[in-house]
Amino acid sequence: QVQLVESGGGLVQAGGSLRLSCAASGRTLSSGAMGWFRQAPGKEREFVAAITASRSTTYYADSVKGRFTISRDNAKNTVSLQMNSLKPEDTAVYYCAAGAGNPYPLYSPFQSRRYDYWGQGTQVTVSS
Predict the structure, then answer these.
(1) pLDDT digit string (tens) for 1-48?
(2) Phi, psi for 14 (deg, rounded to 5)
(3) Helix or strand (DSSP H, E) at 35
(4) Do residues 22 and 79 make contact, with C-beta atoms less than 8 angstroms apart?
(5) Cα Dmax for the chain
(6) Strand pairing of 122-127 and 10-13?
(7) CA–CA gap between residue 14 and residue 33 (Å, rounded)
(8) CB–CB of 98/36 below 8 Å?
(9) Which among 19, 30, 47, 79 is least buried, having the fewest CB atoms inside 10 angstroms?
(10) Beta-bridge partners for 24
């Protein structure tokens, strides 16, 4: 059974930085895309960033482009999200997601349906 465990969330002032990490266990996820989504109170879950299995392509939501950087270590089965210049509107629960590696995915990396496994989430709070 695959488990994704996020870490690194917390409280930070606006303009500060946090680094989220997600460790996968149960199987190797090096063949699938990995991503981060977030959900703020009263809002739907939204895409933040994604990275392909080969690490050759990254995707970002417009709201985080230039501030966040996604990376992965296939040898360690981990994905990270470096968040800089944080804003109060970045406050949310952040979820790690991983795909099983379907060679013919029906959904883009922006879409939650692309992913087969999800973490429990880690809270990020940015104070103004």
Answers:
(1) 889 999 999 999 999 999 999 999 888 888 899 999 999 999 999 999
(2) -55, 135
(3) strand 34-39
(4) yes
(5) 43
(6) parallel
(7) 30
(8) no
(9) 19
(10) 4
